[in-house]
Amino acid sequence: MIARMISSVLALTLGLGAANADELIIGSQIPLTGSAARAGMGMNEGIQVAAKVFNETNGKHTVKVITIDDESQPAKAVAAIEQLNAQGALAFTGGYGSNIIGPASDAAERLGKVYMTSGGVATELSQRGLKTFFRISNATGYAKALAGLSDTLDLQSFSLIYSTRESTAEVAKLLEEIWTAEGKKVTLHPFDPSIADFKPVLHKIKLQDRPEAIAMVGYENDYVGIIRAAKVLKPDAKAIMGTWSLATPKMWQDFPDLMNNVYGTAPLPYPAQFNTPEEQTFAEAYKEMHNKEPDYLGIFGYVQGLLLFNAVAEAYDAGTLNSGGVQDALRKTEHDTLIGKVIFDESGDNTNFAHRMAQHQDGAVAIVWPKESATAEARFPAVPW
Questions:
Q1: Is residue 125 within 8 Å of residue 183, measured between CB atoms?
Q2: Omega within 30 of 0 (cis) for the link into 294
Q3: Among 12, 20, 148, 214, which is most exposed with the fewest C-beta within 10 angstroms?
Q4: Cis peptide before 271, with omega less than 30 degrees from 0?
């Protein structure tokens, strides 16, 4: 493993009585290299901001976050959990991709320690009977967001391109069920995660499907390959949309020629608009640490981090760290967060998770659905080619 261990502890003592402050060690297993690095780095930024805010505001404890790069590989994620545990981690956060989060959270369960993430949505993750697994997002929230935007745009036919990985296939299945039940035409195009050339798929879509919209359920490199092929073949579609890690400023920064008019999920616009005191605290800390505006990956990382830090501190104070106190603290109450109320059920799922749809608009990420949250009108029909 690239033991790229980042001891990111912002063990700040502002407002703390140093003699009374107890340092709580949190382990973060996260992809900083490999195929999921772009998403992992965004989540990591949010976790670091959560540590900074917690350390400056808790008044009693500080957290020390020890981060290990899992290199986007399941085996190295498990090794990271074991290594973090050996370094005294009281709980774990991070993780991106259900295929990586699954074995990593299994390892955490064997250790009897909580694992908190926003990076895996496969339903199976919360159906394993684990007591220590928690996530703030799920597949249903993503599928409902794409379906909701599609209804608003009155789209009636779709070419649905999706990776055969577990979580992506599950979201695609949910979308197919929703759209089929509404009487809409759906043509499925599953692809193996190893595929890099999407021109044959786009050729079929152009000549055979002729859909009103192209929907993608995959990861960053998949989106780039699909849109690149679409720019070459130019199918006559009115819209192209995807799920996570797509409507982000980083994707625009890296691929400005591909992203304009593309839809993806996002909780907030970019540049973000922060109004409440908590939102402003987050935004100011983020800009101070990273010298840029936060995006939704950072927001999710912040929310999962702060929820975990507060729960660990509560269990520490109650003397229940080793008897289920962290998971009890997470489940027993509703949590007000930057993404709305978070309510964990017995399986560790956030039953209140809902998403919004955004669109890349000339460098900005505008929320376009639902209507009550919109920051701009959707550009429609419009595609990047």
A1: no
A2: no
A3: 20
A4: yes
Instruction: Enumerate the β-bridge partners of residue 26.
Output: 65, 91
Amino acid letter, 225: G
Concatenate the DSSP letters of all residues of 269-288 into one string: -BS----SHHHHHHHHHHHH
Give the SS3 label for residue 188: strand
CA distance 244 to 226: 15
Determine the distance from the C-alpha atom of residue 20 to the mean position of all C-alpha atoms in its chain, rounded to a whole number.
35
322: how many CB neighbours lie within 10 A of its CB? 11
Tell me how far apart the terminal alpha carbons of the chain are, to the nearest angstrom: 41
Q: Is 90 left (phi over 0), alpha (psi -120 to 50) or beta?
A: alpha
Instruction: List residues bridging with 264 in a β-sheet.
Output: 358
Our measurement of the distance from residue 158's CA atom to the centroid of its chain's CA atoms, rounded to an integer in Å, reads: 25
Q: Cβ(84)–Cβ(30) under 8 Å?
A: no
DSSP 61: E
Architecture, CATH, for domain 5-138+274-342: 3-Layer(aba) Sandwich (3.40)
Reported as type and span, the H/E element at residue 335 is strand 335-337
Residue 186 Cα distances to 30, 131, 133, 179, angstroms? 35, 38, 34, 7
Q: In this structure, which topology does domain 140-271+357-373 adopt according to CATH?
A: Rossmann fold (3.40.50)
Q: Which amino acid is at 165?
A: R
Which residue do the tokens 């106190």 mark? Answer: 325
Compute the mean pLDDT over every residue in the chain, rounded to the nearest whole number.
93
9, two tokens: 């502890």
Cα distance between residue 225 and residue 216, in whole Å: 11
For tokens 């995660």, the residue is: 193
What's the pLDDT tens digit per position in 196-234?
999 999 999 999 999 999 999 999 999 999 999 999 999
Is the pTM higher than 0.90? no
Please state the φ and ψ torsions of residue 210, each to the nearest 5 degrees. 50, 55
At residue 19, does pLDDT exceed 50? Answer: no
E strands of 164-249, at which residues? 185-191, 213-217, 239-241
The ranges assigned to domains in the chain are 5-138+274-342, 140-271+357-373
Q: 5-138+274-342 and 140-271+357-373: same fold?
A: yes
Spatial distance between the Cα atoms of 294 and 272, rounded to a whole number of angstroms: 7
What DSSP string runs through 324-383? THHHHHHHSS-EEETTEEE-B-TTS-BTT----EEEEETTEEEEEESGGG-SS----S--
